[in-house]
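Task 17 of the worksheet. Students: predict the tertiary structure of the chain below and write it out as structure tokens. Keep your answer in the requested format; marks are given for formatting as well as content.
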Amino acid sequence: MSQSAVSRIWRAFGLKPHIVETWKLSTDPQFVGKVRDVVGIYMSPPENALVLAVDEKSQIQALDRTQPVLPMAPATPAKMTHDYVRHGTTSLFAALDIASGSVIAQHYRRHRHQEFLRFLKVIDAAVPKDLELHLILDNYATHKTEPVKKWLLRHPRFHLHFTPTSASWLNLVERWFAELTCRKLRRSAHRSVVELERDLRGWINEWNKGPKPFGWTKTADDILETLAAYCTRINDSGH
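Model answer:
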């Protein structure tokens, strides 16, 4: 079969063999219940409460290119070396207000339950005391340690809602992290962790001057029906 014939067949059926996407189905036994809980909070937030999507972007590297970045010019894209020098890492803890799009954020050099507990205290101090707090979280072990549980018992306005395992797409703060990566980190160069953290704080402050919320549109039923149809397809494929 000729190359042109193969190419025609690929185009006719919309096949793109050069593209490979990653995927993973959650095996969480409470998957359905957690999806309904999290999506329900997004689409019908409780009254007199603030809903925050919380997560950590760990191991953000302070990277500097080995040679200066060349700015773009007419008919020439910006250029940077493929290699870089590492100058350390930081972790960014972020809480996205799903209603306004504003973000409470804090840097920590480590990524343990101690830092998560400190961040909960930052949230507690930043949000008016008359509001209940509903936090969307993943199942990372630092979110469920005994010190964290004891602190939450002393602060009953905090209500935690966990996404299913292997379902980070359910946490809206991941969408904000994607904005941060694309609009700031991907093209930046930093010669120290201090410089990186200062740059990130500046970007977050600018974001909070005109925040943009990310609307959630799919109901829990829509999500579950889509996944059920997909599972049926892959089961019927013989693989």
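Marker's comment: Residues 193-209 form the longest helix (17 residues). The mean pLDDT is 89.
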